[in-house]
Write a structure and sequence with these properties.
20% helix, 3-stranded antiparallel beta sheet, alpha+beta, elongated, 8-stranded mixed beta sheet, wza like fold, 2 domains
Length: 220
């Protein structure tokens, strides 16, 4: 998985227009459920909290608040945004075990993502919006956009992501990803993928070329 690195001053970015939508293929249901355990919770996601045999301590549906918190029964406000469902469930389990139950079993699941779209723009055959599907990777998103076009600069594939209110970017070399020498990163709801090309505005080219390391997210 890609890593998060230190802050960096942003370069000016020119807007790229968004084009008509396409649709990603669905992954197998079992893969999707497994992937959901490792997805990062975000503001406005709707989740469920289930405490085995304890309906009064469970929440069948709750939205993560604008400050990233969830009011958990008998526990209080806990920060959920930026954590995986498994990590969040473990904190709830620890809190309940400390104050209420001898051996609680807690599960957290994502019911609805805040954003169901991934945007793929730049030098692809069919740029536009894709319906987000759990388990979709960078290669999958580009493939479902018809693949990179002949003018694409395959060493300048950028993923823009907002995490905890901070805008981040990572640059990938598609040839290295295909060869297994760079990770094929899992996409998240709301990600924006930009496939570079020679005629892009200079500000975009400067940003893509200025990334300190390939496959590392850094803050703008």
């Amino acid at each position: 998985m890609v890593l998060i690195s230190a802050c960096r001053t942003s370069l000016p970015i020119a807007d790229i227009p968004r084009l008509p939508s396409a649709v990603l293929d669905r992954s197998e249901e079992s893969d999707a459920q497994n992937q959901a355990l490792h997805s990062v919770l975000r503001v406005d996601d709707t989740i469920s909290i289930a405490v085995a045999r304890e309906p009064t301590l469970s929440l069948p549906s709750v939205r993560i608040a604008d400050d990233g918190t969830v009011d958990v029964p008998y526990v209080g406000l806990l920060t959920a945004a930026g954590r995986t469902p498994r990590d969040f469930a473990e904190e709830i389990r620890v809190r309940l075990r400390r104050d209420y139950l001898a051996d609680p079993h807690v599960s957290v699941n994502i019911i609805e993502y805040a954003s169901h779209l991934v945007i793929v723009e730049g030098a692809v055959v069919r740029p536009g919006q894709l319906t987000y599907s759990k388990g979709t990777t960078l290669l999958g998103a580009i493939a479902n956009s018809g693949g990179a076009s002949r003018v694409a600069k395959l060493d300048q594939i950028a993923i823009f992501r907002t995490t905890g209110g901070a805008r981040q970017v990572a640059v990938f070399d598609l040839k290295q990803v295909r060869a297994g020498r760079q990770p094929d990163p899992l996409l998240e709801p709301g990600d924006q993928v930009i496939v570079g090309y020679s005629g892009m505005r200079q500000a975009w080219q400067d940003l893509l070329q200025a990334a300190p390391l390939f496959a590392i997210f850094y803050r703008l």
